[in-house]
Amino acid sequence: MDHQAAQERFSSYRDQELGPEETRSVEEHLQTCRACRRQYADFQETVASLGTLPPAGPPANFAEGVFERVRKRSHGRLFSQRRRGMAVPLEWLSLIMLVAVVAIYLLFRLSSPFGLFSK
Length: 119
Hints:
Layout: H1 3-8, H2 10-14, H3 20-32, H4 34-50, H5 62-73, H6 90-111
């Protein structure tokens, strides 16, 4: 195994994700190559120091920025500020349509000569 191939497998070797043959090949190379041993030790030190960092969270106004960007790209169709009385929410419109359909159905069933409970 050459230097580049060994270095490309450092992460997988450290995480024990390599198969037995590749693991043996990396270990043999590390035993015989001082430069790669030094580089692998640096890699392990870097990974260990990254583990001590506090978890990073999103910026303070991240969600607002996303909403604003979506609002701009959708030309106000999504996440827009609705004015009261200007737009009827879709849920209310659906409910009104459902009541209208049931009312029309009942009107026709009641106006039939046999009434509501006939078949």
